[in-house]
Design goal:
Blueprint lengths: L1 E7 L2 E8 L2 E4 L6 H7 L1 H14 L3 E2 L4 E3 L7 E4 L3 H12 L14 E3 L5 E2 L4 E2 L7 E2 L2 E7 L11 H5 L2 E9 L1 E2 H8 L13 E9 L16 E6 L2 E7 L7 H8 L10 E3 L9 H8 L12 E6 L3 E7 L21
Parallel strand pairs: 6-17, 8-14, 9-19
Antiparallel strand pairs: 1-2, 1-5, 1-14, 2-3, 3-4, 6-7, 10-13, 11-12, 11-17, 12-14, 15-16, 15-18, 18-19
Helix pairs in contact: 3-7
């Protein structure tokens, strides 16, 4: 099953994407309701909706981001990506020993989510980049769950969607020198879409170790830039979800990105490997298309950069301890 959100003749609607069309949920249901209820309830509603609901061709609607995330965690789960990106961002190629010890992630911005076809409004940047990723979407257990085992975590993965973690590498490089972040180098836009594919639909791609062996590709202005198998991750998605839940909560609507695939999953990796800004950073008008086997494809165009108000530099205190 595939679920999502779209803009149609009657406004925004939510429901199933099926056989080249969209079918609204019955009973004023929403994607958020579906995620909270979990897959078993969704299957029964799918049977009712396809039997009683009327389909509208996909060509007559505009797909929106398939959900409004509760949170967005973005991991760095591909060793090959780490090798390349550290050279581009930090000036030397390395995989820290700590990377192998446990999965690492940062929290991104759930308020700047884009959908398929939306235009990106980037900050002023000389090193604008994309990131080819896949994200797991959490469902079930409305109050949230914590301290999951990977086996239990697998039961809370509702489905998957494509993710593009847009990045301003020059801003990111400055932030990372302070040993915190990334922040403004990342939080201006994340694309999710075109829909959520339920986990059972991709079970056939799971290898013997539980990795999703799907092919992922990214194109800029029609040119293939990078391609990889998602099974090159260092951890499975259930292991990522289990780690995220440690001494914390994962709740329905949480989005957990795989991190950028290797072999050209972003320009920053290639810049690090090539020792130059080759291929060129993204510019206004560039079209970025990502295709993932079994999940579909998303496309966004880069819009004009948005200048932000200036920020003052720090004013170090005189370190007095009393007024």
């Amino acid at each position: 099953m595939k679920i999502g959100r779209w803009q149609g003749p009657a406004g925004v609607a939510e429901g199933f994407i099926h056989n080249g069309g969209v079918i609204e949920f019955l009973g004023r249901w929403s994607v958020s309701d579906a995620l909270a209820a979990g897959l078993p309830d969704l299957r029964s509603r799918f049977d009712l909706a396809t039997a009683e609901g009327s389909a509208v061709p996909l060509s007559e609607v505009r797909l929106l981001a398939p959900l409004r995330p509760a949170t967005v965690r973005d991991f760095v789960a591909f060793e090959e990506h780490v090798e390349g990106i550290t050279a581009g961002v930090q000036g030397r190629s390395e995989v820290p020993p700590e990377w192998y010890q446990a999965p690492t992630f940062y929290f991104s911005n759930p308020h700047t989510i884009l959908g398929d076809g939306d235009q990106l409004s980037p900050p002023v940047s000389d090193r604008l980049d994309f990131e080819l990723e896949v994200a797991a979407v959490i469902g079930g257990q409305e109050g949230g769950v914590s301290n999951l085992t990977p086996e239990a975590a697998a039961r809370h993965i509702f489905g998957y969607t494509i993710m593009n973690d847009w990045s301003a590498r020059d801003l990111q490089a400055r932030e990372m020198k302070v040993h915190l972040g990334p922040a403004k180098g990342k939080d201006f836009g994340t694309t999710l879409g075109p829909w959520i594919v339920t986990a059972d639909e991709v079970d056939g791609f799971l290898d013997s170790e539980g990795f999703l062996a799907v092919r992922a590709e990214v194109f800029v202005n029609g040119e293939l830039i990078g391609t990889d198998l998602l099974s090159n991750m260092g951890w499975t998605f259930p292991e990522l979800v289990a780690y995220a839940s440690r001494n914390s909560l994962v709740v329905p609507g949480d989005v957990l990105g795989s991190g950028t695939v290797g072999n050209g999953g972003c320009l920053g990796e290639l810049w690090g490997r090539n020792g130059s800004l080759t291929p060129a950073p993204l510019r206004e008008g560039d079209e970025v298309r990502i295709a993932v086997e079994g999940l579909g494809e998303i496309m966004n165009r880069v819009g004009p950069a948005v200048s932000a108000p200036p920020i003052a530099v720090a004013r170090p205190g005189d370190r007095r301890r009393v007024r």
